[in-house]
Write a structure and sequence with these properties.
Distance between the termini: 33 Å
Helix content: 25-40%
Pfam family, one: ParE_toxin
Shape: globular
Largest sheet: 5 strands, mixed
Strand order of the largest sheet: 1-5-4-3-2
Strand content: 25-35%
Order of helices and strands: EHHEEEE
Structural class: alpha+beta
Keywords: Toxin-antitoxin system
Number of strands: 5
Family: Belongs to the RelE toxin family.
Protein name: Type II toxin-antitoxin system RelE/ParE family toxin
Amino acid sequence: MSFQVEITPLAESDMDEAYLWRAQNRSPEQAGRWYREILRVLDTLSEMPERFSLCDEPELKEEELRQMLFGLGGSTTHRIVFEVVGQTVRVLRVRHTGRTS
């Protein structure tokens, strides 16, 4: 069964912020690679999104949230927080692992 993946405006804003930080503090090339890779990874949520663990996100009120860990080069730098509603996977946040809110 295939799911539609929807990226919320807040998650898009998180991704844009992470891209800009990488472009300014690492390199524009690395920022571009990071952005392309996270889009590729988000697309994989269309198949079996329930395979990812449940998570607790106090700021978000949804009942059942899941998370996917993401990073380049073998190190996890971000948590992708999402919910599954019917046949849709809604990506709610893309949070740096060092941030609590």
